[in-house]
Every structure is written in structure tokens, then in C-alpha cells.
Amino acid sequence: MNALGHPTVDPNGASSRFDPADLADGTDASRGTFVSPVFVKPSTASRSYARNAYLDPIVARPNLAVLVGQQVTKVLFESAKGQTRAVGVTYANSSTAPTFAITATNEVILSAGVIGTPQLLELSGVGAASVLRAAGVPQVVDLPSVGENLQVRAKSICACVASRALCCYRRY
Ligand SMILES: Cc1cc2nc3c(=O)[nH]c(=O)nc-3n(C[C@H](O)[C@H](O)[C@H](O)COP(=O)(O)OP(=O)(O)OC[C@H]3O[C@@H](n4cnc5c(N)ncnc54)[C@H](O)[C@@H]3O)c2cc1C
């Protein structure tokens, strides 16, 4: 496609950011082509997904515990000497079930997704002061960027069939 004059674009990178102002002079970097690999393991023809790619290979680790059916309700923070650290979380099986707390030895990694992560931060007191105040959540850290700038990536796809094999994809 490059040989035909179409630039390569990184669909997840900074270059894919769309700025309408760039349309006028033709410099917008959101136009171009990219390859979207098929996530299939060739030896088994099975689809790769989060569990078989990341969890299954390490499930026997003694320092790993997976609590299924639990929802984190809050990140716990500790403040000392002007610094605030996440030190654990609370979680529950349902809104009527008892809540448990678990503390971290080193760090808390929050990966609740694009909506869940900022929501959980805000429920825990980390977010824009005005948002926390309106929701009646005691403020831990005033961080106005939390929950802002969610962007939906619009896509326009032009698919074509290559006349010869171009890369690694093969039929099963
Ligand atoms: C329709 C759609 C199509 C997509 N297609 C592609 C694609 O083709 N290729 C690609 O690379 N990416 C694709 N993406 C993006 C990709 O899915 C995300 O980038 C990726 O899943 C983000 O991973 P994550 O672990 O950060 O969050 P997620 O995968 O969203 O995982 C977050 C997890 O946290 C859990 N959670 C949330 N809140 C709590 C809580 N309070 N307590 C406990 N658990 C909680 C959720 O249930 C979820 O299981 C797509 C996304 C969507 C929505």
C-alpha cells in the first residue's frame, strides 16, 4: 500500500490522533494503512484471549490468587509526610454481601478498564474535587484529569484481497 502512495499509520499511536484542523492542509496523520494481525495460534488454530495468553501460563505461581466473582469497591490510601500511597482495596461479592479488605505489600495495580478504572478512582476519592464533592465522596487527591478525555476512535476500513500471500496469515 505504501508503494501505491498510502502512508502507514499506527492505529493505536499518537499519530492516529485526529485533528480536524489538519484536514484543510492535508497533513492529518490519521489517514493511512495498517496491518491488523489475526490473534490465532497457528499450531492449535485457537483464538488467543486474555486468560489463555496471560493467566493460564502463570496460574501455578504461589504468589498469585485470583478471586472470582468479586468487585473492588474502593482503593485504600494512606497519607504520610505529604505523600499519598495506595495500600490496598476493599471488595465484595455483591452490594449486600460483606465487604473485605486486602492490603498490598508493594503496590496496587488498578486495571479495571477504560470506564471502571476512573470510576473506581473517583469512588476512592481520587478525581476532580468538584466531581467528588457533587457525589459526596471524601477527597483524597484532587486530580482533575481522572475520568476526562475519553475518546472513541472512529474507523473507516477499506478491505481488499491480495493477489498473493503478503505476510504470515495462512488458512487452516
Ligand atoms: C467493542 C470493542 C472492540 C475492541 N476490539 C479490539 C481489537 O480488535 N483489538 C484490540 O487490540 N483491542 C480492542 N479493543 C480494546 C481492548 O478490548 C482494550 O484495550 C483492552 O481490553 C483493555 O484491557 P484492560 O485490561 O485495560 O481492560 P478490560 O479488558 O476492560 O478489563 C477490565 C476488567 O476489570 C473488571 N472490572 C471493572 N471494574 C471492576 C471492579 N470494580 N472490581 C473488579 N473488577 C472490575 C472488568 O469486569 C474487566 O474484566 C476493543 C474494545 C471494545 C470495547
Q: Main sheet: which strands, in order across?
A: 3-4-5
Supply Rg: 23 Å
Question: Helicity level, as a percent range?
Answer: 10-25%
Kindly name the structural category.
alpha+beta
Largest sheet: 3 strands, antiparallel
Helical run tally: 4
* Number of strand segments: 7
Strand content: 15-25%
Distance between the termini: 26 Å
Pick out the low-confidence regions: none
Q: What is the mean predicted local confidence, pLDDT?
A: 85
Ligand set: flavin-adenine dinucleotide
Shape: flat
User: What series of H and E elements makes up the topology?
Assistant: HEEHEEEHEHE
Write the layout of secondary structure elements.
Layout: H1 20-25, E1 40-41, E2 46-47, H2 50-55, E3 71-80, E4 83-92, E5 99-103, H3 113-123, E6 126-127, H4 129-135, E7 141-142
Parallel strand pairs: 6-7
Antiparallel strand pairs: 1-2, 3-4, 4-5
General description of the model:
With 172 residues, this protein is of the alpha+beta class. The protein has a domain at 1-34. It has helices at residues 20-25, 50-55, 113-123, 129-135, and strands at residues 40-41, 46-47, 71-80, 83-92, 99-103, 126-127, 141-142. The strands form three sheets. Strands 3-4-5 form a three-stranded antiparallel beta sheet, covered by helices on one side. Strands 1-2 form a two-stranded antiparallel ribbon. Strand 1 and strand 2 form a beta hairpin. The chain is flat and about 60 Å long. The model has no long low-confidence stretch (mean pLDDT 85). The structure holds flavin-adenine dinucleotide. Flavin-adenine dinucleotide (FAD) binds at residues 71-72, 111-113, 116, 120. Flavin-adenine dinucleotide (FAD) is lined by residues 71-72, 111-113, 116, 120.
